[in-house]
Amino acid sequence: MTLLSLSSLKVSLGQRPVLKGITLDVAAGEFIGLIGPNGAGKSTLLRAALGLLRGSGDIRIAGRDTKAISARERAHHIAYLPQEREIAWPVSVETLVAFGRAPHRSLGGLSAQDIAVIEQAIQRMEIDEFRHRSAIELSGGEKARVLIARALAQDAPLLLADEPTVGLDPWHQITLMRIFADLAREGRGVIASMHDLGLAARWCTRLIMIDHGMIVADGSPEAVLTAERLRQVYGVTSFIDTIAGGMVVQPLDVDRKAH
């Protein structure tokens, strides 16, 4: 099942073209790492796919033109975790996670299903121990985990996450990658923009590399993350190997000849 389809998507910010004709399909069961240098267009792509930025081209969610889908209905299909981690409301962590159920709720209170989904999100992100604390009193890493839990509580078929591992220690970075991989195995889709090529190589089922607003590579981690491509796109030399059934990718140094 195709969860999201982009065709010839172009977006400009001011007079500057950022996306220059992006075409891709996202299927259920995929964990896609969206990679590329700073300013390549990764965040713009995610925001445009959600309808937060205007552009030209065709965007379809579950086969339907986004122009024919209300914001509430779109939220049934796609959950979004933005880069920004600021929390402005002095509410409890549990209440903040419950906000993720807003697209599914009527004027009444939480249903038994709402409560079960919220609890699952809290347990998955390991935030139970501070569920009753004020969300504005948390550390940066704790805030990140709470906001991810809110996105998981939305229980949408597709999750778009913009640099979700920022602020997390290695334990929680890997735990989050496991969660995203589990969601894909459960039949959902995940697109996460990432700068950590090691995590992307190890956990994603597919990588889409963007540079200067265009897709320059799309495929398995082994096909996308070659030493020559990393030199051309990122301007770095890299160590690439396979250990225990997965890729290991570690940028080593800048390659000044590439830039």
Automatic annotation (TrEMBL):
Keyword annotations from UniProtKB, A to Z: ATP-binding, Nucleotide-binding, Translocase, Transport
InterPro entries: AAA+_ATPase (IPR003593), ABC_transporter-like_ATP-bd (IPR003439), ABC_transporter-like_CS (IPR017871), P-loop_NTPase (IPR027417)
One Pfam family from the record: ABC_tran
Boundaries of every ABC transporter domain copy: 4-237
ATP-binding as UniProt keyword: yes
GO molecular function, one term: ATP hydrolysis activity
Top-level taxon: Bacteria
SUPFAM superfamilies given in the database record: P-loop containing nucleoside triphosphate hydrolases
Family membership: Belongs to the ABC transporter superfamily.
PANTHER family, per database record: HEMIN IMPORT ATP-BINDING PROTEIN HMUV
Biological function: Part of the ABC transporter complex HmuTUV involved in hemin import. Responsible for energy coupling to the transport system.
UniProt-recorded name of the protein: ABC transporter ATP-binding protein
Organism: Borborobacter arsenicus
